[in-house]
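Discussion board: Methods & Data

I've been asked by a reviewer to show the raw model output for two of the constructs in my manuscript, not just the figures. I'm not sure how much to include, so I'm pasting the format here to get opinions. Each protein appears as its amino acid sequence followed by a line of C-alpha cells. Is this the kind of thing reviewers expect to see in a supplement, or should I convert it first? Here is construct A:
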Amino acid sequence: MSSKKKKSASAFEQHGLKKTVDLLLEEIRDLYLSDQIPWVVGYSGGKDSTAILQLIWLALEGLEPEELKKPIHVISTDTLVENPVVAAWVTASLETIRIAAADKGLPFMPHRLTPKVTDTFWVNLIGKGYPAPRHMFRWCTERLKINPSNTFITGVVRESGEAILVLGTRKAESTIRAINMERHELKRTRERLSPNSRLPNSLVFTPIEDWSNDDVWIFLMQYRNPWGYDNKNLLTMYQGASPDGECPLVVDTTTPSCGDSRFGCWVCTLVDKDKSMQAMIQNDQEKEWMLPLLEFRNKLDFRDKGERSDRDLRDFRRMGGQVQLFHDDPIPGPYKQSAREEWLRLLLEAQAVIRKSDQPGVRDVELITLAELKEIRRIWVVDKHEFEDSLPRIYEEATGVPFPGEKFDDNLPFGEEEVRILKDVCGGEELHFELIRELLDIQRRYNTLSRRAGLYDDIEKAFKRSFYEGEEDAVSYAREKKDKMRLVHEARGHLATAEAKGRA
C-alpha cells in the first residue's frame, strides 16, 4: 500500500471557485437574516478562521445598512503561551478588524479572550506544580482554550437566549474530525446548523467544512482580505513555519500542503517537536531570538526520555499529600519546590535574553505576566506554606531588576536565612522540615484570630502530609494500607458468599 498522503477532493470541482463562493455568500446572508440569534466567530488568525471571517465579511457587505442589526462577535483566545509571532499577528489583526468594521458600519465586534489567572499555564505548572502536560494528563486544553471561549459564549446565550458559533473546522483536517462532524450532521434541526454538544442553546455553523487545504489557500489568494490585512503575509508566515520552507498551493500527492503547518502554544509537550517554531528559526534569521523558547520547551518535554524522566523533580505524594499507588509503585505528584523555583528562574532568564534582541517589538515580549507572578507567589507562600518567599529574589537574580510587586507580608515568621538555619537543624530531613515549617505558618495565621475554627483540621492535614520518615516509609505505609483494604474486601466477599449459601 502506498504511504503517500491522499489528496483531498476540491470543493470547487463542480461549480468552480467564483460560483461556489457566490453560493456560499448567499447562504451566509440568508442565515444571517433568518433570525435575531447573535453569531460568535472563532478566530485564531490562521488560514481557516481567516477564510470564514472573510466569507462572512464579504457576505455582509452585500446587505443594506438597515439589515445589519445582528452582532457578530469575533473571539480569539490567547492562552498567554501562544507562539509570540502568531500572538502579535492576531492581536494586530483584531485591532485592524475593529477599525475597519467601524469605518464600514459592519457589526463585527472583536474580543481577545484570556484564561483566568488561576488557570494559566505558568500558575498551574510553576505555582501549583502540575507536571508538563502529557497525553495521560492533558490538563492544559480545558483551562487555557476551552473555558475562556465557553465562558464568553455562555454569556452571549444568557443575554440573548441562543447563539450561533461559526467555526473553520473542516473534514479534511483529520479522519477523527470528519467522523465527529458527520455524527453531528445527523442531529441537525436546521440546514448546516449542528447542535453544540458542550453548550446548550448554541448551534454550530461550519461554512467551509468540505473544503480542502488547497481550497482555503486558493480562496485567500484570489479574494482580497476585506479588513486590510494582506493574505500573502499570512501565506508567508505559514511558509516560514514549514520545515522545508515551501508552501505550494496546487500540489501533487507527494507534496505537503501549507495546511500541515500547526501554530499553537510554544510550551506544548503534547507533540514530539515544535516543528513550526523550529522552521521559523531555520528559515528566517530575524526569528533566531526564539531559540530560548525552543530550548525551554525541550527541557519541559519528558515524554519517553528514559533517564530524563521528571520523576526526580516531582514529589512522591499527590497534591493533597496522600500516597497513591499503581501496581505497588507511587504515582508521582506535583513538582517539588526546588523544581518549581528552577522552572521560574529558567523562564525569566529566557525572557531576559529575548528582550536583549535588536528585532523590532521583541524587547516587549512577555513570557509571564505580573499577575501570574503575583498569583504564583501567593500559592507558594499561602497555599504551600513556603514562607521564605523566594520569588522576588529569583526574579531579581534572573532579570537584574527588583520584583515590581508589593511587599507580601510583614508577619511572615522567618526570612530565607532563618529558613536555611531551620533546614540545618532538621539535619536534611526534608519531610520533618516541611512539617515544622507548615506548623509554624499555621501558628502564625491563627495567632491573631479571636475565633480559631479550623485550627485542629489544619494541624491534622499538616501531619498527614509529612509524618513519614521519608519516601520509602510512606510507600511502605501505603502498601500496607492497600493490603489491609484488599483483605477487608476479600473477607466481605467470603461473608456475602456464606450468607447467600445459608439463605439457599
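Construct B, same format:
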Amino acid sequence: MSNQPLTQIDIDALLKQRLPKHYRYIPSFVISRLARIIHQNELNAILREMAAQPGAVEAADAALRILNVHAEVMGKDNIPDQGRFIFVSNHPLGGLDGLVLISCIGHLYDGNIRFMVNDLLMQVKPLQPIFLPVNKYGTQSRRLATEIEAQYKGENQMITFPAGLCSRMNDDGKIRDLQWKKFIITHAIRNRRDIIPIYFEGENSKSFYRKAKWRKKLGIKFNYEMILLPGEMFKSKGKTFKIHVGKPIEWSSLNPTQPQAEAQRACNVVYSITLQNNA
C-alpha cells in the first residue's frame, strides 16, 4: 500500500483489517474478483489525481474531468448569494451525484461547504476537509454530535442526501429515494437555515436495481449492491446530468412538532421541481 493509505484503495488490506479472524479463509481469487468489481485500479488512478489538487472542490473537479462528466444547473436563480442554507437532494447515483454537487455548490460558495457522509466515504482523503461523518451503523459519539451541531451553527453551507442510501426502484418501476431522515428539519429550525431543494436527474443501471430488489426479497441484510456503485459510476463516463434547483423552503414555515412529516414534504418538493420549472 501507499505510504498515504487513505489516498488509495487496497481491497486485500481492507479485508485483512476488517475481517482479521476470517481473512485467511478467503480465497485469493475472491479478493481479485472483488478488486475488479470495485474497479480498484481505475479508482486509485482517480484518487491520485484528486490528491494532487489544492482543495476538496478542486479534487471533485479532477474526478469529474477524468470521467468526462458534466452538469447543467436549472433554476440557478433560486440559489441565494448570501445566507446559511441546507442543500438537500435526492440520491440517484450513490457517489457520482455527490461529486457533482460538491463541484457545483462548492464553486458558488468558494469551497465553504460541508457534506454529511457515512464513515466509509470519510476514507476518501482528498475530500475529507469538507466531509462531515455520520455513523449510520451505531450510536454517534458525543464528540461527533457536537461537531455536527457546531457546523450547522457555523457559516458553511450544508449539503446532504437525507435518504442516506441511494435511490431504489419501487414496485411500480419508478426510481425514488428511501425515506428521508427528519434531521434536516430539526437542524433547519434550530439553526434558522432555509432549505434549498435539489432534484438530480439520473439513475443507475437496471441490473443494479434488480440485484437490490432480489437482495431485499431474499432477506439478505448485507448491502451487496454497494460494491457495485463504482462500476455504475464508470458507466456514466461522458454523461451530462441535469440538476434542478427549487425555491428555498423557509425554515420559519416548518412545523417543529412534525419533523418527519416535514421531511417527507421536502422530499415531495424535490420530486416536483421539474414540474414547477416546466410550468
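Answer (T.O., handling editor elsewhere):
This is acceptable in a supplement if you add a one-line summary per construct. For B, something like: Residues 1-6 have pLDDT under 50 and may be disordered.
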